[in-house]
Amino acid sequence: MSGSNNNRAEEKQCRICLDGIEAEHELGRLIRPCLCKGSISYVHVKCLQRWRNTSSSRGAFFSCPQCHYQYRFARTRIVGLASNPILVGGLSGLLFTIVVMLASYITTYFMSAFEEPTTSSYYSWSFFYVSPFEVAQDLVVAALRILKDGGIDGLLDDTIPVGGNGPRSRRPDRVLRPHSSPGFIKRFIKRFILGLPLVGAGSLVHMLLSVGYLLPVQWLARYRGNRNRRDGSRDLAALIVVALLVVGALRALLKVYQLTHSITQRLLLRAEDAILEVA
Is 70 helix (H, G, I), strand (E, B) or coil? Predict the structure, then answer.
């Protein structure tokens, strides 16, 4: 019985390209989209797609020209939506926002670790090995310091201490802003701003690991993280740190888009790109 089933599978042949099951990896699965029998009953998914789109007969797009069976289009709408770049971009943006929101809670949970830059020596053995975790931490510390120096700390008043830095900021007599219950939009913006530096720093460090530029970035992040600037002078270090974090965040967004696109492509392959097969 198993031998006869194998022979029957080997006899399957596409009525358009005349190839068999060996071409399924390139042309899609052999299906029976209509009520035709015998040697013309099977067709590759992509061959049928090409026939429907290029046939001179307009009716060939909707029904089989031999048996006149109307194709079932239950999947074609889903396929069209899943392959829409606007939809893929929207899903990527939503997934990226969720990642940033989760990162904001990590930043809040470890806020005490982000009050001061790391303290490992620049000129010891760390010159030959730079901890990527410390670089990411220093970048987040610098980003939060830039936010406070830029006067945006009011948006983050229930998360970032206002009075002082480092150990002094943990004194019981530090000044705190009056707490008021923020609205949904303000909470959303606050969370997004809190999570974005961590996502950007993680993506940037991952990118720099392959080129070996972690040490200069760590020096820059520590330099800016140890400074307070509230005057109107130019802050070149802050501009560079922000630019690096933006590059990291955009890279993370690109990775999320590529992941979303890959998932939708797998769904397309499972859906066979097209038409329901006739049982």
Answer: strand
Number of C-alpha atoms within 13 angstroms, CB side, residue 230?
6
Dihedral pair phi/psi, residue 44, rounded to 5°: -70, 150
The span from the CA of 79 to the CA of 270, in Å, is 10
Q: What are phi and psi of 31, to 5 degrees?
A: -125, 165
Q: List, in sequence order, every residue forming a beta bridge with 70; answer none if it has no partner.
A: 63
pLDDT tens track for 235-279? 788 899 999 999 999 999 999 999 988 887 676 655 544 445 665
CA distance 29 to 3: 21
111: nearest Cα among 152, 166, 160, 154 = 160
Task: Check: CB of residue 205 under 8 Å from CB of residue 218.
Answer: no
CA gap 135, 114 in Å, rounded: 12
Rounded to whole angstroms, the Cα distance separating 192 from 189 reads 5
Task: Round to whole Å and give the CA distance between 219 and 138.
Answer: 9
* Distance of alpha carbon 214 from alpha carbon 124, whole angstroms: 15
Rounded Cα distance between 97 and 77, Å, is 27
User: Cβ(31)–Cβ(271) under 8 Å?
Assistant: no
DSSP line for 155-199? TTTTTS--S-SGGGGGSTT---PPP----HHHHHHHHHHHHHHHH
Residue-wise pLDDT for 35-90, tens only, equals 888 888 888 888 888 888 888 877 787 888 888 888 776 555 555 556 667 878 88
Q: Which amino acid is at 54?
A: T
Q: Where are the alpha helices (DSSP H) in the chain?
A: 2-10, 24-27, 45-54, 76-82, 85-109, 132-149, 184-208, 214-225, 236-270
